[in-house]
Specification:
alpha/beta, six-stranded parallel β-sheet, 14 helices, 12 strands
């Protein structure tokens, strides 16, 4: 055990205490080749006795591994902190990464400058793989990851990067289902606050809404905003009410957006679900905090994070990349808002 004023224990101290060569200690610490169980036990006891702490940077030079996985989130900083879905994905990924004795490194990209900086960071070999969240079409960082050949996986399925596998949900089918259930309550003029149409999730949710409406779809009853945010729902619902005061149903592209929709309806003196039925998407913490509680689509965010981390770690360990990806199940959860 080390004490203040004493020099830091070295690999030579471990070897001397264990009665083995320095090379044997190095092989065990770096995992570069086989070490007998007897030598392993002696080295582990020696490490505990002399208080040796491994120099991770030096080990990485030998193994060419950082034992870190990047968690890349392409969102404004305030939305990253406010989005419970991203938090759940992060926690799921971190569980798997930690179980494998890797470190999860969170990198938030809020601008093109951020994308360039993070791309340089990735080129430096500071992570062995990456989980990409909220990637857009023609995303700079996704292109950089692909060119580097870095083990990676998308949460969601942005077009244009077939070499990178993905974990996601069938947003189109889920949006169609929740809209159909809203229509089944007798609503006649159903609108949508669509968001993030530059991502597969946003464009697919709008497509599912159109599927459910069929010939009744009216493009005037769709407004679109850039982000899945409360502000988008508030502004979007205000605009819809200006366009069509007779609206009696609204599908919000996320629960956070739905919360903003509810506030706009309160401002306008519309009761929910009496005058207007509202449904969201995610079944996040927003859904149960809203008054009334939201009818919504439950997606397994934490499980998506776990699956994504498993795929990246598999690639790091040499597994072949399977083309395509995995779609996880969703379900409609019906509550008081519709």
């Amino acid at each position: 055990m080390t004490h203040p004023g004493r020099r830091r224990a070295t690999i030579h101290d471990v070897a001397a205490e264990a009665g083995v060569s320095r090379g044997t200690v190095s092989r065990l610490l770096n995992g570069t080749s086989y070490v007998s169980s007897e030598a392993r036990e002696a080295i582990e006891k020696a490490i505990a006795k002399v208080g040796y702490v491994q120099n991770t940077a030096a080990r990485n030079l030998v193994t060419q591994r950082s034992r870190a996985v990047g968690f890349l989130v392409h969102e404004p900083h305030e939305l990253f902190l406010d989005d419970p879905n991203i938090g759940a994905i992060l926690l799921g990924a971190n569980e798997v990464v930690s179980e494998a004795d890797f470190q999860l490194v969170v990198l938030v990209l809020d601008s093109e400058r951020d994308s360039q900086r993070v791309a340089d960071y990735l080129r430096g070999g500071f992570v062995d793989g990456a989980v990409l969240v909220s990637a857009r079409q023609h995303d700079t960082i996704a292109g950089a990851v692909e060119r580097l050949g870095l083990p990676a996986v998308f949460i969601g399925h942005p077009p244009g990067h077939p070499a990178i596998p993905y974990v996601g949900i069938d947003n189109r089918s889920a949006a169609r289902s929740v809209t159909q259930e809203l229509l089944a309550t007798g609503r006649e003029r159903v609108a949508m606050v669509a968001c993030a149409l530059d991502r597969d999730s946003g464009s697919d949710r709008l497509a599912g809404f159109r599927d459910a409406l069929g010939e009744r779809f009216d493009p005037r009853l769709v407004v679109d905003h850039l982000l899945y945010s409360y502000a988008s729902g508030l502004e979007g619902a205000r605009e819809l009410l200006r366009r069509e005061p007779a609206i009696d149903g609204i599908f919000a592209a996320s629960d956070a957006v739905a919360a903003g929709v509810l506030e706009a309806l309160r401002e306008a003196g519309r009761s929910v679900p009496g005058d207007v039925g509202v449904v969201g998407f995610d079944d996040s913490a927003w859904a149960v905090r809203c008054v009334p509680a939201l009818s919504t689509v439950r997606q397994p965010a934490r499980l998506m994070g776990r699956r994504a981390a498993e795929i990246v770690l598999g690639q790091i360990q040499g597994a072949e990349v399977e083309p395509g990806g995995a779609l996880l199940d969703t379900e409609v959860v019906w509550r008081a808002s519709a």
